[in-house]
Amino acid sequence: MVRTGIGRILPSEPLVRNGHLLAVSSLVNAGVGAIFWLFATHWYDDEVVGVSYSALSASLLLANIGQLNLNDFLIRFLPCSGRQTRKLLLTCYAVTATWSALVCLLFVLLVPTLSPELAFLRDPLVAVWFVAATAAYTIFVLQDGALTAMRRPGWVVAENMVFAFVKIALLAGGAVLALKTGILLSWAGGLLISLLVANYLLLRRAVPHHERENPEAVRPPRLVSYAAADYAGSLFRMAAYTLVPLMVLNVLGAEQSAYFSLAWIIGYVLFLVVRNMGSSLVVEVVRRPEQLTEHGLRVLRHSGTLLAAGVVVIVAGAPWILRLFGPGYAEHGTTLLRLLALSALPNLVFSVAVDVLRARRRMRLVVGLQVALCVLVLGLVHLLLPVFGVTGAGIAWLAAECLIATPLLILRSRWLTSASRQDVLSTGSTS
Prior knowledge:
This protein is mainly α. The protein has helices at residues 14-43, 46-66, 70-77, 85-114, 124-149, 153-176, 182-213, 223-252, 254-287, 292-323, 327-359, 363-388, 391-410, 412-415, 421-425. It has two domains: 10-219, no CATH class; 222-431, no CATH class. The chain is 82% helix and 0% strand. Helix 6 runs antiparallel to helix 7 (182-213). The two termini are 40 Å apart. The chain crosses the membrane at residues 21-44, 50-68, 88-112, 124-142, 154-178, 184-203, 223-246, 258-278, 299-322, 334-354, 366-388, 394-411. It is found in: Cell membrane. It is a multi-pass membrane protein.
C-alpha cells in the first residue's frame, strides 16, 4: 500500500504507526479545540464559558455511560468479526444511542438536585438538543473505535478535523448573533457534520473492504460478560475524568470552573496520547497474541519518551499558554496545568496495565484498577478543593496516579507477560 501525507514520515510498524496517527488525531482535535475555547473566552463571558463547559462535560459523561464502553469492545472484536462486521457495528450503534438517550433524559429530570448550575437544561428545546447531542456523541465515539479496529487511523484524523473546524465556524456565527447557547449549538453542529461524513466513508468503504479481506469470523464465547465487565470498569475511569469539572463548578463556582476547564483541556492531551497507543496495542495483540509482552514494553518506552517531552514543554510554557486565554487563566491555572501534565507520566503505567490486562482477559483486575483511580481522584478532589482551591484538583490527580503506578511498576512482571492465542481470543474467564 502506498502511503501519502503524514503516513510517509511515520514508522512502518503497525503498532507504533497507527498509535502515532491516533495520537495525531487527538493532538489535532485538542489543538483546534484549544483554539475553539480561545475564541469562546474572547467572544463569550467567563460565566457562559464555565457553564457551557460544565454542560458539555456532563454530556460527555452521560455519553460515556451510554456507549457501554463498546468503543473498546469494537477495537477488541471487529478485527476478527469477518462478514459480521457491519451487523456488529450497527447493533452497537443502535444499543448505545438508545441507552444514552435514556440515561441523558434521566439526568435532565434530576438536574436541580445533581447540578443546580445547569438548570437551564430543563428548558424543553435545550433538553431535546442535550439528549440528541449526547446520543449522537456515543456514535461519534464508536465510529472512532471501528476505524481504529480496521486499521484506518488516518480517517480518524480527518473526521476529527472536520468536527473541530466546523464547530469553530459555527461558534463565530453564534457570537455574531449574540447567542448565549452559541458554544453548545456550535459543538452539536460540528458533531452532526462529522457523523455524516465519517459514517458514509465507514459504511461504504472501510467495512466492505474489511469484510472482503477478513471473511472468516472468530466468535469468542461470552462476549456479553466480557463487555459487561469492561463497561463496569470504564464507568469508574470516565467518572474520574468527567465529574471533576462538575465538582469544581459546584464547590468553587462558574469562574473557577472556567479556569479548571482550560487547564484540563490542555493537560488531558497527554492522557489521550497514551490512550491512543493503548488502542493500537490491543488491535495488534488480537492479531499477534504471542507479542503481547514485546508490544507492551514498546508502548511503555516509546510513549514514555513522547510524554516526557510533552510534559517539559507544558510545565515550562504553562503561564504563556494559559495567558492566550486571558490573564485570569494564567494567574489561577498555571500550577494546576503543571500538576496535570506531570500526572500523565504515572498515568502511562496505569493505562498500559489496563490494556495489557484487558488483552489477557484479567477483567477483575481491569475493573479494580479503574475503581481505585476513581475513588482516589474524586476523594482527594473533595478533600483538597476547599483547602487549595482549583489547584487542589491537580494535586489530587498527581497523587492518585502515583499511588496506583508505583505498585504496578514494582510488580510489572506479574501483569506484563505474554499471552497465548487462546487467552486473547477466548473471553470465558473474568479472573
